[in-house]
């Protein structure tokens, strides 16, 4: 199978999954108890007003019509209107998306930059203090709920020492960069860094621990293989053996597991945002749930599902790149 | 047969042990070996006799829990001797250098450029996710970098290792890649040298796209990349089909004649030995029990083990020629289970009371190089002093004592666990 | 099902792994603490208002800290600094509304373990048959079932759980506490509270992992000789599934179940932290309460978090032990 064909197949599967997500969320919304009109207007409003609203929102239509209309809107990016704020759901999502992406990317960078060298050191210096330290760290890391970790970081680094702010995101990354470029002062960027530091560590710790663990055990498996001895025998420098050969092959299973764990990253972002009042999609989702604002809930979940599918396709392409045998099957 | 008598490598008293959970395993004990420049030296023995461990000890590929516990490996290399003389005078004797007395880093720098190795199973000895060409080019690059500096040997003994920083840089800047373009081209010409058709296309293919025989050719090409002084071939044909085996041996033969390189050939196959080698060492239970020229070992052998091994080659001329395996099993190499007797005594048809003490290596008749570790070299078999048949208990007792290593990370020589005599001979000739 | 070789492996791994011993020890302690919470608790965990004479929370034993209070003085309200002293009665102090932190820690363990164990059981009960059928029959049944699983996996478990709770609403089930009923612990709550929706939802979110593992096992067992033999002898598919395929798939399912208990405990704590649980006797809820008092009463949020970490670590250690002994291939690990 060629690479292009492989990719097309994955994309078609992805489209199917997105359709499934849309359908499930639609079903959840339909199954939710209570009359949605009560969520839009005061329950005591006149029957005429209620009927009018019902018609305007399209709730008077049969369910399948509502479903088809929703799908139709989705194709052009129309996710309907929020019950609570009457605003366009796609806009409400778009304005919160950058904050969540900043957080997720920062956490991933933290995780990858720390975890991979840590895992390599741990595997190559087995049974030395560095290995025990890394193993203990990864055990505690995967066992600690991230919201509690965040609170402990706030307790120690913000409340006690005052090193980092407790919460919030006063400036976005793009604004901070623009300000750096136009004024030449890094002040905004430093503010951004100070605010994202704790949330990124909070969200990234589980992944740092997980990747360290996977890297260590994967490296140990891989280091026992005959090709490693053969590579040593040809005199290749140790760094190249460890990173170019062994780590590369270790990355193949790691990438797969990370693809599966993507949901954990997104779920973790939701709760991290709640801890740090980070104005992203996650905190918007939670307030939407409290307000039973179904169009908004539905929209956010669909966007998350699309993101999940896209990243998984990306992961699969990386996988195919790393492992030349995949596309040959 | 080569007329040269200049030694390239002298191994003296080499012992390599593995410290496992079950106890100390004496994989190689007190081993002497001399390989002359331009020769093909064969080491033959059953599985678990310590052949591969010997090769790996020379290559410095013994990993924890294994360790070279004593011995000297003298390697003739005038340039290296001059380079390390100042700092490690005790490791230098004329143009010989004792590899066990020089720093690890220097020793590693000899891999690929002084010694290289062909492994048994080509399919698992290549990294599955890099192209064959890339892997060959790496081996070329090691050599290219080593010789790029005019004061290379001296520089290598001091220089910094390739650092993590350089690697990270190389992933971002193509110009900083470890493997240079000229190494890639040289890799392609090496593929051509070993008879791989369409080398330009094949260089871009991955190991799984090669057949076993082709891959073994590629491995030979890789081993030649550094123009090594000594090529170690560890069971180079065992994993291959019979017809392919012959082709690979032809290739090795041809390359040897063209380049005059020295080869240490490790095999359990006496046919291969007879065909390729100038000198032979017969290994049993971690020791060389008999060594000498091909004629010494094949025609004038003294040790009953050598005799048994040769007897187990099917005789094609005798009708219905049958394999005659040596009764009994490879003995345990666990230190605590090894007595002080001759290690072959329990299987030896000519075991005598003298065999209850460990025999030293003595010269035997034949060429100057013929040496044997057996009392029969100095006295003839005396039936009156023979040990009773049941002296060592039931001879066919399975070798339970040496179980498979329990821990997941101990690269114990797996062959050690195999209790039976392999099919010795049968092909290749 | 559990062969002698397997038992020997378990024992050998246990003997040589300090971590396995530690994990088992912590897990047993937590299990005992949770089971006998009504007896071991020093106070009714719901009793409020246990403050010091200045109306502030007691700190844990060994902790004193500088705090202040307002009192009516000669010229109006006056700020008085004083040192808050721990009470001999409250081992781990009291929380913001004056409840005993130690007693709530024990009762919180009950909630976590109940949800973890029942949730895992439910998830396995749904996922294992689904996966076995999918893997055993293969073909179109397998394809469609796996597409469903793909869709499920596209929902982050926390997000799906929140959405499902949005649909079902919060709920709590009251289970009579046998220890209190038998009269061993007077003054303790008569009912144990199980957050029903949360339990159901964590199972609905996590069954896919069981389905994946069971499917993989069924697929590999399907082609084994003895299954083919049983089929040729005329055994029907249901019998083969229950008698042959299931027992042989059990090992990896047990390992997965262990990991899932940890994952579900983490998920439950996250849900109750966000306020979606049905009970307040939960570690996550307690942490959320304590977050506002970090500057004045740090122990409220700290103590239950340590409880979660210890519980999850011990289960993960047990999982590692099982995995090292049984060595099945399990791809995914659930998490928050």
TrEMBL record, chain A:
Transmembrane portions of the chain: 12-32, 103-124, 136-163, 192-211, 252-276, 296-315
Pfam family name, one: BPD_transp_1_N
Domain of life, per lineage: Archaea
Gene3D superfamilies, per database record: MetI-like (1.10.3720.10)
Keywords: Cell membrane, Membrane, Transmembrane, Transmembrane helix, Transport
Gene Ontology BP term (one): transmembrane transport
Keyword Membrane: yes
Family, per entry: Belongs to the binding-protein-dependent transport system permease family.
Protein name: ABC transporter permease
Automatic annotation (TrEMBL), chain B:
Gene Ontology terms, MF aspect: ABC-type nickel transporter activity; ATP binding; ATP hydrolysis activity
The name this protein goes by in its record: Nickel import system ATP-binding protein NikD
SUPFAM superfamilies xref list: P-loop containing nucleoside triphosphate hydrolases (SSF52540)
Subunit composition and interactions: The complex is composed of two ATP-binding proteins (NikD and NikE), two transmembrane proteins (NikB and NikC) and a solute-binding protein (NikA).
Gene3D superfamilies: P-loop containing nucleotide triphosphate hydrolases
Gene Ontology CC terms: plasma membrane
Catalytic reactions of this protein: Ni(2+)(out) + ATP + H2O = Ni(2+)(in) + ADP + phosphate + H(+)
Region (Disordered): 385-429
Pfam families: ABC_tran, oligo_HPY
Biased composition annotated in UniProt, kind: Acidic residues: 401-412
Compositionally biased spans, kind Basic and acidic residues: 385-400
Domain ABC transporter: 9-310
GO biological process: peptide transport
Topological type in the membrane: Peripheral membrane protein
InterPro entries: AAA+_ATPase, ABC_Ni/Peptide_Import, ABC_transporter-like_ATP-bd, ABC_transporter-like_CS, Oligopep_ABC_C, P-loop_NTPase
From TrEMBL, chain C:
CDD domains, per database record: TM_PBP2
Domain ABC transmembrane type-1: 109-319
Protein's UniProt keywords contain NADP: no
TM regions (residue ranges): 21-41, 113-139, 151-171, 191-210, 253-276, 296-318
Species whose genome carries this gene: Natrarchaeobius chitinivorans
Gene Ontology terms: cellular component: plasma membrane
Membrane topology classification: Multi-pass membrane protein
Subcellular location: Cell membrane
Name of the protein: ABC transporter permease
SUPFAM superfamilies attached to this UniProt entry: MetI-like
Family: Belongs to the binding-protein-dependent transport system permease family.
Biological processes, Gene Ontology terms: transmembrane transport
């Amino acid at each position: 199978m060629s690479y292009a064909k492989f990719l097309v197949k994955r994309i078609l599967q992805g489209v199917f999954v997105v359709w499934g997500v849309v359908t499930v969320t639609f079903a959840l919304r339909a199954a939710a108890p209570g009359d949605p009109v009560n969520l839009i207007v005061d329950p005591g409003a006149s029957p005429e007003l209620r009927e009018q609203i019902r018609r305007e929102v399209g709730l008077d239509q049969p369910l399948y019509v509502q479903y088809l209309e929703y799908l139709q809107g989705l194709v052009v990016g129309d996710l309907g209107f929020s019950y609570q704020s009457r605003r366009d759901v796609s806009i409400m999502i778009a304005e919160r998306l950058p904050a969540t992406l900043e957080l997720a990317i920062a956490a991933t960078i933290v995780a990858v930059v720390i975890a991979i060298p840590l895992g390599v050191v741990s595997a190559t210096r087995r049974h030395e203090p560095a290995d025990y330290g890394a193993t203990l760290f990864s055990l505690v890391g995967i066992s600690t709920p991230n919201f509690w970790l965040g609170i402990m970081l706030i307790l120690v680094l913000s409340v006690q020492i005052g090193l980092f702010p407790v919460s919030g995101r006063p400036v976005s990354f793009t604004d901070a960069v623009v300000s750096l470029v136009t004024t030449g002062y890094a002040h905004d960027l430093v503010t951004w860094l100070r605010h994202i530091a704790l949330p990124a560590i909070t969200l990234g710790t589980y992944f740092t621990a997980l990747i360290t663990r996977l890297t260590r055990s994967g490296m140990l498996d891989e280091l026992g293989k005959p090709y490693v001895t053969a590579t040593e025998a040809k005199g290749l420098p140790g760094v190249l053996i460890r990173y170019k050969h062994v780590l590369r092959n270790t990355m193949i299973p790691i990438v797969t597991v990370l693809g599966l764990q993507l949901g954990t990253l997104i779920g973790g972002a939701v709760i991290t945002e709640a801890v740090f009042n980070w104005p992203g999609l996650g905190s918007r989702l939670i307030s939407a749930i409290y307000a039973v604002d179904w169009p908004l809930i539905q929209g956010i979940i669909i966007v998350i599902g699309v993101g999940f599918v896209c990243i998984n396709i990306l992961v699969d392409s990386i996988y195919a790149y790393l492992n030349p045998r995949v596309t040959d099957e | 047969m080569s007329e040269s008598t200049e030694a390239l490598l002298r191994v003296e008293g080499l012992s390599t042990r593995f410290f496992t959970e079950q106890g100390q395993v004496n994989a190689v004990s007190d081993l002497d070996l001399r390989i002359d420049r331009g020769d093909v030296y064969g080491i033959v023995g059953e599985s678990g006799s310590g052949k591969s461990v010997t090769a790996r000890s020379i290559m410095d590929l013994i990993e924890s829990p294994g360790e070279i516990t004593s011995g000297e490996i003298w390697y003739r290399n005038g340039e290296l001797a001059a380079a390390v003389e100042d700092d490690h005078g005790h490791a230098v004797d004329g143009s010989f250098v004792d590899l066990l007395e020089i720093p690890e880093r220097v020793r590693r720098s000899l891999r690929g450029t002084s010694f290289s190795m062909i492994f048994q199973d080509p399919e698992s000895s290549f990294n599955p996710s890099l192209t064959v060409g890339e892997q060959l080019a790496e081996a070329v690059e090691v050599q290219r970098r080593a010789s790029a500096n005019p004061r290379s040997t001296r520089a290598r003994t001091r220089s910094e290792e390739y650092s993590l920083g350089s690697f990270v840089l190389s992933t971002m800047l193509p110009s900083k890649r470890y493997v240079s373009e000229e190494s890639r081209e040289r890799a392609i010409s090496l593929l051509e040298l070993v008879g791989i058709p369409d080398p330009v296309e094949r260089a871009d293919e991955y190991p799984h796209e090669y057949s076993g025989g082709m891959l073994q050719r590629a491995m030979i090409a890789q081993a030649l990349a550094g123009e090594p002084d000594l090529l170690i071939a560890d069971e180079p044909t065992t994993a291959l089909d019979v017809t392919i085996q012959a082709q690979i041996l032809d290739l090795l033969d041809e390359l040897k004649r063209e380049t005059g390189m020295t080869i240490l050939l490790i095999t359990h196959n006496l046919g291969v030995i007879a065909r390729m080698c100038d000198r032979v060492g017969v290994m049993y239970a971690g020791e060389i029990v008999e060594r000498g020229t091909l004629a010494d070992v094949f025609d004038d052998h003294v040790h009953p083990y050598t005799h048994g091994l040769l007897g187990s080659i099917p005789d094609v001329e005798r009708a219905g020629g049958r394999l005659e395996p040596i009764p009994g099993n490879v003995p345990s190499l666990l230190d605590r289970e090894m007595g002080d007797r001759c290690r072959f005594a329990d299987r030896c048809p000519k075991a005598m009371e003298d065999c209850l003490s460990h025999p030293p290596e003595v010269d035997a008749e034949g060429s100057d190089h013929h040496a044997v570790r057996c009392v029969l070299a100095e006295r003839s078999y005396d039936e009156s002093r023979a040990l009773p048949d049941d002296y060592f208990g039931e001879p066919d007792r399975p070798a339970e004592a040496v179980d498979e290593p329990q821990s997941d990370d101990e690269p114990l020589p797996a062959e050690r666990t195999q209790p039976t005599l392999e099919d010795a001979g049968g092909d290749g000739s | 099902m559990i062969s002698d070789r397997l038992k020997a492996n378990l024992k050998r791994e246990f003997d040589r792994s300090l971590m396995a011993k530690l994990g088992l020890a912590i897990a047993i302690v937590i299990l005992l603490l949770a089971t006998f919470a009504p007896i071991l608790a020093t106070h009714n965990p719901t009793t409020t208002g246990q403050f010091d004479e200045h109306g502030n929370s007691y700190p844990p034993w060994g902790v004193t800290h500088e705090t202040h209070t307002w009192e009516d003085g000669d010229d109006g309200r006056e700020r008085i600094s004083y040192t808050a002293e721990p009470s001999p009665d409250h081992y781990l102090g009291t929380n913001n509304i004056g409840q005993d932190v130690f007693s709530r820690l024990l009762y919180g363990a009950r909630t976590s373990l109940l949800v973890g164990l029942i949730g895992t059981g439910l998830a396995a009960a749904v996922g294992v048959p689904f996966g076995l059928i999918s893997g055993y029959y293969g073909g179109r049944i397998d394809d469609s079932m796996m597409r469903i699983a793909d869709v499920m996996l596209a929902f982050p478990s926390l997000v799906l759980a929140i959405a499902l709770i949005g649909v079902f609403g919060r709920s709590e089930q009251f289970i009579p506490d046998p220890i209190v009923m038998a009269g061993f612990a007077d003054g303790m709550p008569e009912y144990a509270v199980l957050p029903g929706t949360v339990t159901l939802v964590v199972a609905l979110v996590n069954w896919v992992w069981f389905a994946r593992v069971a499917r993989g096992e069924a697929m590999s067992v399907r082609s084994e000789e003895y299954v083919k033999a049983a089929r040729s002898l005329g055994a029907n598919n249901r019998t083969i599934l229950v008698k042959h395929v299931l027992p042989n798939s059990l090992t990896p399912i047990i390992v997965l179940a262990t990991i899932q208990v940890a994952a579900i405990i983490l998920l439950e704590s996250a849900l109750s932290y966000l306020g979606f649980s049905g009970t307040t006797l939960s570690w996550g809820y307690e942490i959320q309460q304590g977050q506002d008092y970090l500057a004045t009463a740090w122990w409220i949020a700290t103590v239950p978090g340590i409880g979660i970490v210890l519980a999850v670590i011990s289960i993960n250690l047990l999982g590692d032990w099982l995995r090292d002994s049984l060595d099945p291939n399990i791809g995914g690990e659930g998490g928050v």
